[in-house]
Amino acid sequence: MAKPDKFAIGVDLGGTNIKIGIVSEKGKLVKSVSVKTEADSGPKKVIANIIKGVEVILEKNKFKIQGIGIGCPGVVSTKKGIVESAPNLPGWKNVKLGPIIKNKFAYKVHLENDANAAAIGELIFGAGKKIDSFVMVTLGTGVGGGIVFNKKIFRGEFGAAGEIGHISIDVNGPKCNCGSTGCIEAYAGNSYLKEKIRSELKDYPDSKVWKMIENDLTKVSPRIIQAASEKKDNYANFVIERMGNQLGVALASLSNLLDISTFIIGGGVAGFGKPLLDSVRLTISARVLLPLRSRVLVIPAKLKNEAGIKGASSLVFYNN
Ligand SMILES: [Zn+2]
Known about the structure:
This protein is an alpha/beta fold. The chain has helices at 43-58, 97-105, 114-124, 185-188, 190-200, 209-212, 222-230, 234-258, 273-287, 307-317, and strands at 7-13, 17-24, 29-36, 65-72, 75-77, 82-85, 93-95, 109-113, 134-139, 143-149, 152-153, 262-266, 297-300. The chain starts with 6 loop residues before the first strand and ends with a helix.
């Protein structure tokens, strides 16, 4: 008889929704639920919502649960299970999320920064399964990252490593939310990207994008740019290529610094697909120091829509 699968609960704590699921050891999502975060009501309410969601997912549970993994934005102490600070969650300062959830459900709880959880998800279930060292880049509202070296996540001194989004590529570049200038997030982050497109689209009156947004600039989105690019729109291709170039400049520095040559690109904006990955790869190859050049590998993330839940659940299967 085949050995029955082991399962883990993954909690993806986002600013708007908390997504909770049961995932098998092999990375299969077997059950999921989404509850509102209600972040503005503060940590107590958010934690109550997490507990409510986990209770719902455990109703009539027939799976062999090994533990609960939580992916959380911000700076996290994985050892203590404490969320030290989370910029998108008002009031979160040294919140003992791990111990609270552990006391409630009597499962082992693993807490991790969400970008690191995404990297571990790719390591355990996804594109990084057969790769020892890689950098995971998540393109979404912000630009997040996680560094995996010899199958281990690199957390840095205080657990805040991997903030790839705030590598600056231009001292005179656009102002970033973090207070610096020219951060890669200020080019490739969703809202910055949309704003840039809105301001420059008028210089491209022939672009197919105009028709796709019905001349309404509020409808500009990465998805529209992707669709226009698939229709071979010159402006959309230019936007994607430029973004790949900007990302590539930042990642080449990382490659030189870390001697890691594999980059896994995920997140919503990664939907730009091959044209983006090609542009990133070409730029890194052209800029990284010569000995690293032939090894540069830029590949898409494998965990797509459920990357958050799967990344969080992978923490339970990740041998720390
Ligand atoms: Zn920044």
